[in-house]
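Lecture 7 notes: from sequence to structure.

We start with a single chain of 284 residues. Read the sequence below before looking at the structure.
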Amino acid sequence: MNNFGLAPEKLVDNFSSTPGSGHFAELGQRATIMQQQATKILGDVNTVLRSVLNIIYDLKEFRMRLQHYDGLKSKKSEEQEASMLALKQIWMDKVDIAKGNSSIKAMALGQAGYQTLIDAFLVAKDEKDVDKLDLNDRVKRILKPREREFIIWIQESEKELKKRYELEKTYLRSQVNSLKLYSRWVRPYLKAAQDLESKDRSRDPVLVKTFNTIILELTLLGKNKMDIIEEAAKGNLPNDFAKPRFVNGIKRNYYSCILVDFIFRGIPQKVSQQSHYAFGGEQK
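Now the structure, written as tokens:
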């Protein structure tokens, strides 16, 4: 087909061997090896994919948190107040709660005389603003150092959060590159495992289960660009195809195509001291 300039293309390439043949057993072992390797790499892909998803959710949380810090620098007083309240809630839930029974929430909810502690902490802007509130001295003495701690936490946590955000983005790029690499590695194993699968022809009478028999199926498509005028002159096409009006109106190429279908029934025999088989049999 190449000699005739047909540029053959393979459309079908299947095989079916009997379960009792050595060829079936050996190809089954090879397919199992390919499947095991693919499964191992797919496990690594799954691990990296979970890591990527976790990083994406972390970055989302970081962006939301950083918006609160940006809100403190806003020119709108309502945005500043909302951001300050949000950060104070976060500080109480994640930082101050580590103090246990001496945390603001624990004291306000569990100890008498400190019921106003949470509201006072949310209202006060800094430790100096505490003195302006109508509170007893015991609550003020507890509230002032907490307000100072919160101010220091805002300054330091913003810096650390921005650093962590940039590190997470760099790590995300690294994990995505690893995911692409694993995907490229696993593709040949999946393709090889698929190619080693035998076509089901169990009802074909020539395949007796315990015989050493194989059927190979190959379909080729060859095509060659046609010269419309020349073919019309030879009589292979109507004469009208050679007229200028028709030729000038052609907007695409035309090809002559040949479809060749081979079905080979053979007996696989392993070549001495080699890992491959030789096939002798009948061509249909």
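Residues 137-195 form the longest helix (59 residues). Keep this in mind for problem set 3.
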